Amino acid sequence: MYKFNRQLVLADGTVFKGYAFGASTQALGEVVFNTGMTGYQETLSDPSYNGQIITFTYPLIGNYGINRFDYETINPSIKGMVVREACHKPSNFRSGKTLDQVLSELNIPGISGIDTRALTRKIRAFGTIKGVIANLDQDPQELVALMQATDLPQDQIAQVATKTSYPVTGRGYRVVLVDLGMKSSILRELTARGCDVVVVPFDASEEEIMRQNPDGVMLTNGPGDPTSVPQTIATIAKLIPQVPIFGICMGHQLIALASGAKTYKLKFGHRGANHPVKNILTNKVSITSQNHGYAVDLDSLANTDLELTHISLNDGTCEGVRHKNFLTFSVQYHPEAAPGPHDANEVFDQFIANMEEFINKNKELQHA
Ligand SMILES: NC(=O)CC[C@H](N)C(=O)O
Where does L-glutamine bind (predicted)? Predict the structure, then answer.
């Protein structure tokens, strides 16, 4: 057996010893777990995981390598990876590099040989916790002190969102896509439907957005606490009466906050590819991909113009809302999947239908 050469130390002093892969740097972040059986490439490159150390509960990670096609961003920014077994000899026709190679290039450390089941049970029991991946010669007590002295960053969205606007041209509806740390598969779903997209930074003003004459505005996923971007929330509040809006995950949370609802941090979040969600208007259940640590407070919807449309069948939390008077709606889960099942993909078609309705109404008004 090989000798342990790396450790994962949690903020409560728990030490997991394991084997190094990826970069040999030290990393501190929030430790979360993902239960997907596949999709580690999309997960490690999903900007919503910015700053987090991801534990994979599936026991073998890296077995189909890393390819050119499945990145959700070309600049992955997770802090680290914790796995039971890292596969160094992948087998897949699309594989270009090993997981180990890619993490080394990205300066992201990994640790293998960990009892990820025990770690996950701990997070489930006590909640999401800070952790450090470090070499074995580091004193765990010093690392615990370091964690106590280090606050998690508050500017997470600014760290990963685009700083400048850019067009992704098409011949269909004009969509302004507000980038809060966008997964590229959201853009892919819009362009697949012919949309003429302008991507704008998360802090674009209402004027900057409306100047594009949008048929609809889309708010993406993104990392961190949704209450950390009050300006964006104020902008969304101004947009809701003017134009159809569709939000995913962070976008959903911001629509709720802009409408007067509240958000809170979940004990350990939803991260995986098999979360059952019920549409309470149709009674239809979809198996969905999810990645979030915050949720919209169900009770707080009562004082708003939003109505609940979807709930999680695992824990009963809010999974979707729509506006009672305007063409605004949002989902907490990931209809773009990547990775995950495509059950919920039609949600994008609903956004297209809303834009069509909006345009037809405007035409009627012009002819009235
Ligand atoms: N994927 C997302 O957009 C996540 C939203 C938010 N950062 C959360 O953790 O709840």
Answer: 48, 222, 224, 250, 253, 291, 293-294
From the CA of 221, how far away is ligand 1's center (Å)?
6
Give the residue from 119, 152, 185 where a domain finishes. 152
Q: Per-block average pLDDT, block size 10, for the chain (368 residues)? A: 91 98 98 97 98 98 98 97 98 98 98 98 97 97 98 96 98 98 97 98 98 98 98 98 98 98 98 98 97 98 97 98 98 94 92 97 83
Do 185 and 289 touch, CB atoms closer than 8 A?
no
Same domain, 183 and 328: yes
139's tokens: 């004193």
Query: 291 a known binding residue?
Result: yes
Q: Which residues are catalytic?
A: 249, 334, 336
**321 shares a domain with 294:** yes
Closest-CA residue to 259 (of 335, 321, 176, 179): 321
The residue among 116, 131, 152 that closes a domain is 152
pTM over 0.80: yes
